[in-house]
Amino acid sequence: MPTRRKQFPFDEFEPRWQAHWEKESTFSVPNPGDADFDAAKPKYYVLDMFPYPSGAGLHVGHPEGYTATDIITRYKRMQGYNVLHPMGWDAFGLPAEQHAIKTGEHPRINTENNTANFRRQLKRLGFAYDWSREVNTTDPSYVKWTQWIFLQLYNSYFCEEENKAKPIKELEDAGLSREEIDDRRLAYVAETPVNWSPDLGTVLANEEVEEWKEKGHTVERRPLRQWMLRITAYAQRLIDELEGLDWPKGIKLLQTNWIGRSEGAEVDFLIGEETVTVFTTRPDTLFGATYMVLAPEHPLVSEITTKDQADAVAAYQQACATKSDLERTELAKEKTGVFTGGFAINPVNGKEIPVWIADYVMMGYGTGAIMAVPAHDERDFEFASQFKLEVIEVVEAPGEPIEGCFAGEGTSINSGFLDGLPTKEAKAKITAWLEEKGLGKKSINFKLRDWLFSRQRYWGEPFPIVWRDGHHEALPESELPLLAPDLKDYKPTGTPEPLLSKATDWVELGDGVMRETNTMPQWGGSCWYYLRYCDPTNPEAPIGKAADAYWMGENQNPGGVDLYVGGSEHAVLHLLYARFWHKVLFDLGHVTTPEPFQRYFPPGLIMGEDGQKMSKSRGNVVNPDDVVELYGADSLRLYEMFMGPLEQVKPWSMKGVEGVYRFLGKVWRMVLVQDQEGDWNLSEKLKEQDPDKAANKVVHATIKKVGEDIESLSFNTAISQMMVCTNELSKRDTIPVSSVVTLLEVLSPFAPHISEELNARLGARFDSVSSEPLADREWPELDESYLVEDEVEIVLQVNGKVRDKIMVGKDDDKETVEAAALASEKVQNFIADLTVRKVIVVPGRLVNVVAN
RNA sequence: GCCGAUAUGGUGGAAUUGGUAGACACAACGGACUUAAAAUCCGUUGGCCGUUAGGCCGUGCGGGUUCGAGUCCCGCUGUCGGUACCA
Questions:
Q1: Which of A406, A372, A403 has its CA nearest to residue A387?
Q2: Among A124, A550, A613, A690, which has the highest number of CB atoms less than 10 A from its own CB?
Q3: What's the pTM value of the predicted model, to 2 decimals?
């Protein structure tokens, strides 16, 4: 890129205004109880997803959402809101630890460096953050409350009757045993098969496996003792309470499907002495169950396997155990399985059906056992075809008979007392019959699993738990935060033994009392950071009552963060986890609203100039620092908003950046003209005079359009309107100063530096222009009367085709307009040989003459 | 496979409740200024036919509703994203 003269000296005034905002604490906002707090002001809480401060620095994707929220912040401030717009750091995480392994340096150092770089980059973009509220998940004062919230979960149970969390103390008072109590905690210990990565030295959540495998790490499956959070208790509420939220429909659906509610029945089958319960969503097909399948890990497999099948079954179980979930599904093209030799009795007709084990049935869902109805389930059909098992049709498809398998709804046949019933009724009847006979019951299942909450890494929050005599105990609150000790080296132990177990001095407390050595996942800190911003230094609680009531909107329905902007890649995990924690805190009375995020908006991904996803390997990554260097922060901000609709995926274009840069240059030159010496002086065209009709019209049209578009996050069209306004004003011989100032006011949320600079220069010269910074001004008032025209252009159509355009009075009645239309020469030409059948008049729009 | 999003000029994208398709930009071309270039300013720019006037066609494809469809309905196709034996 050749050096060239800048269109305007952004490199001089942008840092100057940023320093001004910092010095004046322009965007600091007081809390209830503070001296300058004004309770009469309405609040608005705009939240960005806080970044993980990676070594790579800011990516152009970050300023996309951040600029959007910044525009909202500045706009709402101008409208008189107390706006909370904070930023912080999700600073625990594997990359810093990987760096520590390589260098032997404490991960805190790397984290601090990266954080400083991120902060510098964000400040350079002029965002209106209240930096006094900055939080960092790795700060001891933050860790303290993350651990405290964990203890809230640990010390609570889910009360089914009241459908909410309650203190565990109630169970103690009720005289439950220690084991019974531990089994009901919201944070509990369980032995479960987990994804263990030997080279990362940690267990991963199911959702993380894919990501790390792509980066070349190995992940295997093995059973381990882990901390779990009982998110499944909240499954129904997490679905139901989405309803009142202003989130994109698709995102709600995504979460709903992730939670995966299905209604059906549990049915008991007898296998010899043993009872095996299956879950099915199609109890109406019970007469068509021709075999049964158990998951290979099902505890009853060994009981029911016959001697001559024992070897085959054991071999199959062995083969499955070493396969990861991924391999199980990757190899899912062909069904595999083994006959156990056992037979089950179908309770509805007493028929004996063979019992198989197969890995297409998973232990983790339902009961780990199914009744197979090959005629009406594709998987069962495939399995039955492969192993030549019986197929009995029990549902008749509506319309044409169907070859093979029919999984839809129809009418029951070959099903005794269900015959002739449509699927829905058959389901109800058989379920009632099973319940009456004590052979089964209605049942609801969720795909959602409990949340595996422990990791074996170093760089995370330690669990505030100690072990005594094989039992876990909570640390007293007074011992929080519990910080991890420094280590000599951060290399994984090579075994599933957590890294912290290396620090024996720290772990062993004497008398056989040991600290828990697992750490929390990164999600822990990010689950509640939006609460801490509201009250970032509170030493008594994660968030104080008054701060919660005001910022989270106790009296609003449903309350919570007013606008949350961040990538849809977090739409299921982070957003689900945070909602879960929030509900627990709500149930326990620590917060006053049931949902954390009232409105959520995911911006679309920004692709590389080649239309591909930005990545180092493709060499198409755009660095925001480079863009700021060449065109300034305002241009970067404005371009990212002008690219297209915020929610859309869109490719980067440097030419596009130049386009908005030129626009800002045009605004600059409308106010200032450069002389021979290169100094910028106020344009002679600017006049302190009342704006004429045309100027008022375009300026007020701009106030209206920009305001509406900000509300709906349609920033691209707001910007194009400001371009129209600028084009209109700048081509004039004299320009009313007040029109320019109004334009600067509406431009200021988008491009705050240049707007402030121009306003300051105008204020220094013209008495009529306020020198008060735009950031503290009110949003300009719209006067609709300027937008009303006496005459409007309407379109004349003949048979739907545009033939002419005429001007008519704004209040002309239909008859007048129709007469004027028919009088048009062009219309006359087209209808000369035709008969007019009908004339449609749309006031202010068009006249359509229908003729043939 | 299932779920969701989406399809408009050479490009990014605009278009109230159905009512002038292509706003605003980018690129391209032509012109002015300049010794020259950059920057700036002015003009042209969906396709086809036509010297002009003007006409015809045109919002992924095929139907439909309507005076009128980018927009609504039915049936497809492509692209992107999510998810995957969840019984």
A1: A372
A2: A550
A3: 0.94
